[in-house]
Write a structure and sequence with these properties.
265 residues; alpha/beta; five-stranded parallel beta sheet; 5 strands; rod-shaped
Length: 265
């Protein structure tokens, strides 16, 4: 649920807003109320709401000063301000502070509906972005980033695993399987599978998948490459299947991964 705090010094306006609004319609719940800016700062800092609906004119600390104080302390919910006619200079100041919307007393039902609809959507967008950002901040712990490539220095004729790994590094863009490589080495598929698992610690199929996805991460550093082209470069003909595997191993989609990389440049 989207969490709402109402800060309003006029009791009838505050109670009327809280008690007559169908908050469930917007996926919201009121988690607190305050009668002035001082109370509002303390309440908002404590309950961390997603949206604050506040009057501009209040005794002690007005709505503008309250918003400024909260932003200085790094508290940044979405704000909807309530203003009266003749207070548009205050409203302009509020909009400069990033206030999402404002309502004029007496509050019109349609205006309230529009303000809540738009502001709730902004909250949901922000939450979605935060989830993506959290995933990407932890990307170093994803399974594909923990993948260790099997290092091959000099490969002897009898080192079937080393030759298999070398084959993967040269042909990962092709449609290869453990049978493909075993046939190339003139040994049985079961024998190569057993040797590969013993020496590498992964099955041939898992190793090939991790190798390809790690290569995809390298290709995604280029901002202009199309996802289907990258899928083809690492041996996946089906872009949707590639995206599914990528998200399973990395935690985000290829597009989300690239967008985040580019935002850090």
């Amino acid at each position: 649920m989207i969490r709402i705090v109402v800060v309003e010094d006029e009791i009838l306006v505050k109670k009327g807003l809280i008690l007559t609004t169908d908050w469930q319609k917007y996926g919201c719940e009121v988690v607190g109320e305050a009668s002035n800016g001082f109370e509002g700062v303390q309440l908002i800092d404590r309950v961390k709401p997603d949206i604050v609906i506040t009057d501009i004119r209040m005794p002690g600390l007005d709505g503008i000063k309250m918003i400024e104080s909260l932003k200085e302390n790094g508290v940044s919910p979405e704000f909807i301000i309530i203003t009266g006619y003749g207070e548009f200079e205050y409203a302009r100041k509020a909009l400069k502070l990033g206030v999402r919307d404002f309502l004029v007393k007496p509050i019109d039902d349609d205006d309230l509906d529009n303000a809540l609809t738009n502001t709730c959507q902004a909250v949901l967008d922000k939450q979605r972005i935060e989830k993506i950002r959290d995933k990407l901040d932890n990307i170093g712990e994803s399974r594909v980033m923990l993948f260790k490539e099997y290092i091959v220095d000099q490969v002897s004729e009898e080192d079937y695993v080393g030759r298999a790994v070398k084959y993967i590094s040269l042909n990962y863009s092709l449609d290869i399987t453990v049978k493909t490589v075993a046939d190339n080495l003139f040994i049985s598929e079961s024998y190569l599978s057993r040797l590969f698992k013993q020496k590498v610690g992964q099955t041939f199929g898992d190793y090939l998948t991790y190798y390809r996805i790690k290569k995809a991460c390298e290709y995604l550093r280029e901002p202009d490459g199309k996802i289907y082209e990258i899928a083809g470069k690492i041996g996946y003909k089906d872009q949707r299947y590639f995206s599914l595997i990528f998200k399973k191993l990395v935690g985000v989609t290829p597009k989300e991964f690239r967008d985040k990389l580019n935002s850090r440049l």
